[in-house]
Amino acid sequence: MALSEGNPGCINVLMQAYNLVGGPRLGFLADTLQANGITGSRVWVEYTDKHDSDIEAFVGSVEANLIEPVTDRRGLIADMKAR
Q: Which of 7, 42, 45, 57 could form a disulfide with 51 if both were Cys (CB 3.0 to 4.6 A apart)?
């Protein structure tokens, strides 16, 4: 629950990832996302905006650690308000 922060979009992405890669790899993906500060709505934004809702592209980017870590939550909030 900590990774999703209760965000339904994040839960959707995690379920799709689970269906694609299975349990053990999902654990690795979750650890990578959390280590980079990508949780809750940020997971959904990464999936929809940066990967065009393509679960295979999203998972590939996470596994290759090609996602940008979140270092400033104010930037995320500003990005979300601009939509």
A: 57
Q: What is the rounded (10 degree) CA torsion for 66, 69, 75, 77?
A: 90
Amino acid identity of residue 53, one-letter, is S
Going from N- to C-terminal start, the domains of the chain cover: 8-81
pLDDT tens, 41-79? 999 999 999 899 999 999 999 988 887 776 655 555 555
SS3 62: helix
Decide: 37 and 71 in contact? Cβ < 8 Å: yes
Alpha-carbon span 51 to 23, nearest angstrom: 22
Give the max Cα distance, the chain: 37
The pTM of this model reads 0.78
For 17, the 3-state DSSP assignment is helix
Number of Cβ atoms within 10 Å of the Cβ of 20:
14
